[in-house]
Amino acid sequence: MSVMQSKAIKMMEVGGPEVLKWVDIEVGEPGPQDVRIRHEAIGLNYIDVYFRKGVYPQPLPGWLGMEASGVIESVGSEVKHLKAGDRVAYAGKPAGAYSQIRVMPADIVVKLPDAISFEMGAAMMLQGLTVQYLLTDSYQVKPGDTVLFHAAAGGVGLIAMQWLKLLGATVIGTVGSEEKAQLAKSYGCDHTILYNKEDFVKRTRELTNGRGVNVVYDSIGKDTFMQSLDCIMPRGMMVTYGNASGPVPPIDVGILGGKGSLKLTRPTVMTYAHDRTLLEPMAADLFDKVMSGKIKIEINQKYQLENAAQAHRDLEDRKTTGSTILLPW
Predict the structure, then answer these.
(1) Fewest CB atoms within 10 Å of the CB: 53, 82, 115, 303?
(2) Phi and psi of 156, rounded to 5°?
(3) Which stretches make up the Enoyl reductase (ER) domain (predicted)?
(4) Which CATH number is 281's domain given?
């Protein structure tokens, strides 16, 4: 059995970015349903911060990273949809993408079209698949819908701005600075709200002539959840899919009735990525939109993998826009 030497980011404890350590590891042969991948690029996502802080618990010492692209080095005996030499990408568990080489389950890995670079593949899978299910399944956006999208200039946000315009929606986006407002608008956002200077509920009501929006997409969590409910028209939908400011506290479901028979959902990308009957068509939809030029993936930051701690600091300090990738070599 051949053992490969590799480098990876390991965390011995939960905490700040300083808990991320650059270590030597050994990588063995894949099991029957696994593949061994040599990574070419790795995606940075806010979910990585949740794991590092212990918001999403995992056994320690632990690994980070939910998304990467690379080349298959070897496949297990029962793997049929992939072979050595295939260009691939993935988003999903188990964590461990912050590595040069890894063994992982084959069922969440998809082939990456030749027309999509490794860097783009790593930057788009988790965020792109998230946008795909948010806009087509969590709530099916229709032409003429009005949408409130928090963090419109982030990685998910910039992909969503473009996709929402393809669907014929009017988009209101919250952002943290004038620079981010201009960026979101350049990607299709119709109206921007600076959440730290404006009352986003009041402004959303003004922009919709008092009606409210069909749907709110909220990855901020605790700081925006209750106000977001006040932005929604009767029988509208609240989609909460992240908690950058902390988890949403327990809610009395009667509030949804009092605010207009609202619907509430809390989807996660793992539900979709770990079901190949969902993953395959979702990935095909995403790849098609990127290859056709309808969706552009904005990679605005690149870090060497060994500098993952600094990447985490910048992400948490809201210094990043669009997608961020880590380079393992």
Answers:
(1) 115
(2) -65, -40
(3) 15-326
(4) 3.90.180.10
Q: Residue 314: count other Cβ atoms within 10 Å of its Cβ.
A: 16
Is 122:41 a contact under the CB 8 Å cutoff?
yes
pTM of the model: 0.90
Q: What is the CATH number of the domain that holds 172?
A: 3.40.50.720
pLDDT tens, residue by residue, 148-196: 999 999 889 999 999 999 999 999 999 999 999 999 999 999 999 999 9
Cβ contact 143:169 at 8 Å:
yes
Q: Would strands 263-265 and 232-240 be described as parallel, antiparallel, or unpaired?
A: parallel
